[in-house]
Structure formats: structure tokens, C-alpha cells
């Protein structure tokens, strides 16, 4: 399973990319607004560091302008993936950009039938938002299971990119289900390392090592 960072904070992305565990990045208009930076500047800076897919979202709502924006975004770097909302216009734009060999990430997916029509439209990635479903008392991970079944049934090539990740369990369950990618906010990414027994075990080893008065270097 690939790990993407769900962030538009260039410094954070650079620091976390250095771990060797980040395969790509997803951004959205809210994350760009939070960064306080120019969209194209942010994308150019991210693409200097990140060699894997970088999702950049269109803001037009009609297919003609989505296609125009998508073409412009794709020119920023060869690893830009054009993010399109899961609307009728978004899927028309998806089909068009796919024909032009521009990669797409169909976002704001909240049902398995939406995921089905996105795959039929040739999406490179589908982004189901698990956290936002949990927020309204639905089961986000159940949606991932359904999409996995449907995509396996029909051997769709569209990759399942689990989005709106709120906790470590979302990452764990994504891996158990066999999702292709999970996009993780930086604070959750850091939690992937953490376990109280790791911390305690390390303290115990280091204390015992001190008692030996030895050095490795
Ligand atoms: C994914 O591509 C989206 O940018 C993101 O995961 C949305 O997450 P949120 O529901 O925490 O805003």
C-alpha cells in the first residue's frame, strides 16, 4: 500500500519525504487556502521534492473549464494528477483528460456506485472520504470494502485512494482490505511510528546498556 501525504505545507512535506515512506501528495483547495501560498508556487515547490503523484484539484464546476484547468495544472510537472469532483461534469472532464493521457483523481466519493461510475470514466484514482462518512455516523471503511469488491469483480484499473483519514485504524483497515493508497495528514503519519511498548522497551534497553559502561562507537 502506498502512503501519500495529505498536505500543502511544503516544509512538512519535505521533512516527511526524507523518511523514505512518502510515495506522493494530495492537496485540495482548503489545504491550499490553509497554506496561505499561491497554488502554482506550492505545486512547483512540492514537485521539486516529491517524485511520485501530486494531486492538484480543479475549482471550475463545468467540464469545459475543468478540462482547461486540468490541462494547465498538468503542465506544472509531469507527476501532477488532476483532481476532479465526483459530479456529472467532473466525470465528463475525467473521460476527456484520460483520453489525453492526463492522470486523474476523482474526489469527494461517498458511495460505491459513485466509485463505480468513476472507474467507468477511466479515473486513475478514486478518493472515498472515510472520515467524513464516520462524522455523520456512517461507516467509512465499509465503503472501502464495497469499492474493493466492485473493482475486483470487474478488474477495474482505478486505484482506491483512501482519503479523509482521521486515525491509525483507518490506515490499518485500509491495509487489511487491500486499498492501493492511503493519504495521511501529517499528524496521523507521525503516529504510525508510535507504540507505548516501543517507547518503554527502548528506555529499558538504554538504561541497561548504561549499566554496562560500554560504547559501540
Ligand atoms: C483527500 O484528497 C482530501 O484532501 C482529504 O483527505 C480530505 O480530508 P478531510 O475530510 O480531513 O478534509
Task: Name the structural class.
Answer: alpha/beta
Head-to-tail CA distance between termini = 37 Å
Tally of DSSP helical segments? 11
How are strands sequenced across the largest beta sheet?
1-2-3-4-5-6-7-8
The biggest beta sheet is recorded as: 8 strands, parallel, barrel
Q: Which ligands appear in the coordinates?
A: erythose-4-phosphate
The ordered H/E elements are: EHEHHEHEHEHEHHEHEHH
What does this entry look like structurally?
The chain is 52% helix and 17% strand. With 217 residues, it is α/β, with parallel strands linked by helices. Strands 1-2-3-4-5-6-7-8 form an eight-stranded parallel β-barrel, surrounded by six helices. Strand 4, helix 5 and strand 5 form a beta-alpha-beta unit. The model has no long low-confidence stretch (mean pLDDT 98). Bound molecules: erythose-4-phosphate (E4P).
What features would you highlight for this structure?
single chain, 217 residues, alpha/beta, 8 strands, globular
What's the SSE blueprint?
Blueprint: E1 2-6, H1 10-17, E2 24-26, H2 29-35, H3 39-49, E3 54-57, H4 63-74, E4 80-85, H5 88-99, E5 104-109, H6 112-120, E6 125-128, H7 130-135, H8 140-153, E7 159-162, H9 168-177, E8 181-184, H10 186-191, H11 196-212
Parallel strand pairs: 1-2, 1-8, 2-3, 3-4, 4-5, 5-6, 6-7, 7-8
The structure holds erythose-4-phosphate (E4P).
Structure in a nutshell:
This protein is α/β, with parallel strands linked by helices. It has helices at residues 10-17, 29-35, 39-49, 63-74, 88-99, 112-120, 130-135, 140-153, 168-177, 186-191, 196-212, and strands at residues 2-6, 24-26, 54-57, 80-85, 104-109, 125-128, 159-162, 181-184. Helices cover 52% and strands 17% of the residues.
